[in-house]
C-alpha cells in the first residue's frame, strides 16, 4: 500500500483542493494572510499523513506525525471560520467544508487509535 491509497490522505487532498478553488475568490488583500494560511494548513494535513505512513516502523513517530496532521486540520477549521465570518464563504460552502474537515479529523484519529491496521508494529 502507498500513502496515496489511504482514505484519510485522499479525503484531505480533496478538501485542500476544494479550499484552493474557493480561496481563488478571496479578496486580493487577503493573499498573504488568510488565503496563504488556509492553503498551507489544509495542504499540511495530507503531507503529515504521508509522513506518518512512512514512519510506521516507529510507532511514536507515526502517532506524532498524525497528531501534527490533526492539528493542521483544526487550524484549517479556524481559517474556514474566519473566511465565513468575513463573508468570503457562503454558509452552505462553509458547512460543507467543515463537515469534510471533521471527517478527515475522524479518519486521522482512527489511524492514531488503530496503528496496527496501518502496518505499525507494537513497541
Short description:
The chain is mainly alpha-helical. The protein has helices at 7-23, 31-54, 59-85, 91-113.
Descriptive account of the structure:
There is one protein chain. The protein is mainly alpha-helical and 123 residues long. Helix content is 74%, strand content 0%. The protein is built from four helices and no strands. The protein has helices spanning 7-23, 31-54, 59-85, 91-113. α1 packs antiparallel against α2 (31-54) and α1 (7-23) runs antiparallel to α4 (91-113).
SSE class: mainly alpha
Number of DSSP strand runs: 0
Percent range of helical residues: over 70%
Quaternary organization:
single chain
Rounded to an integer in angstroms, the radius of gyration calculated over CA atoms is 15 Å
Indicate the low-confidence ranges by residue numbers.
none
* SSE order: HHHH
Give the N-terminus to C-terminus distance in angstroms.
Answer: 22 Å
Instruction: Report on the biggest sheet.
Output: none
Question: Layout of helices and strands, plus pairs?
Answer:
Layout (H helix, E strand, L loop, with lengths): L6 H17 L7 H24 L4 H27 L5 H23 L10
Jot down its keywords:
single chain; 123 residues; mainly alpha; 4 helices
